[in-house]
Amino acid sequence: MSPASRPTRADLLASADRTLPTIAAPGLRVLFCGINPGLYSAWTGHHFARPGNRFWPALHRSGFTPRQLAPAEQLELLTWGLGVTNVVERASATAAELSPAELQAGGERLVADVERYDPAWLAVLGVTAYRAAFHRPKATFGEQEPIGATRVWVLPNPSGLNAHFTLARLAERFAELRSAATGP
What are the residues facing 85 on neighbouring strands? Predict the structure, then answer.
């Protein structure tokens, strides 16, 4: 893939079921957790890479990073004590393709990742996925029950398909977590 190239439909379909590496290290401030990679992200090999996804702009506008990173710069998250992973590792066209069993298994794997990396905070990006993965059917946005010493926060899904949240509102929600994670 060249930086200027665009995937064909065949390229995207061939990316189904690919996985992306977890970007993490021990002792992170926040480990952000998407639902699962989309086909575009799997094609590029970078988290939240689809044009229109608001993760990188929201991360910057909320004050987590001093500048907006491009998806290809995902390893720079570690510089600021941040990381990124997914509840379900395999890529799909939409999160609706994931079964409840996949989400629950992903929640179990995520608990193991939290135990391994010991982040101060786990931020799950999508309340519906959080509910299914962690058996919390009434969960809402904001702070949840911790996993051991790791505090858990649920944020809105940054996908451009999530029309309930503008970029400005999404950045406000991310900033609430940043404030909780770093203090006022």
Answer: 33
pLDDT tens column, 96-122: 999 999 999 999 999 999 999 999 999
Sheet-wide strand order for 82-86? 82-86, 30-34, 121-125, 150-155, 142-147
Instruction: List the Cα angle 31/115/109 in 5-degree steps.
Output: 80
Domain 9-182 carries which CATH code? 3.40.470.10
Residue 112 φ then ψ, to 5° = -65, -40
pTM score: 0.95
Q: What is the CA radius of gyration of the chain?
A: 15
Which sequence spans correspond to the domains of the chain?
9-182
What H or E segment, with its residue span, contains residue 4? none
Distance CA 114, CA 104 (A): 15
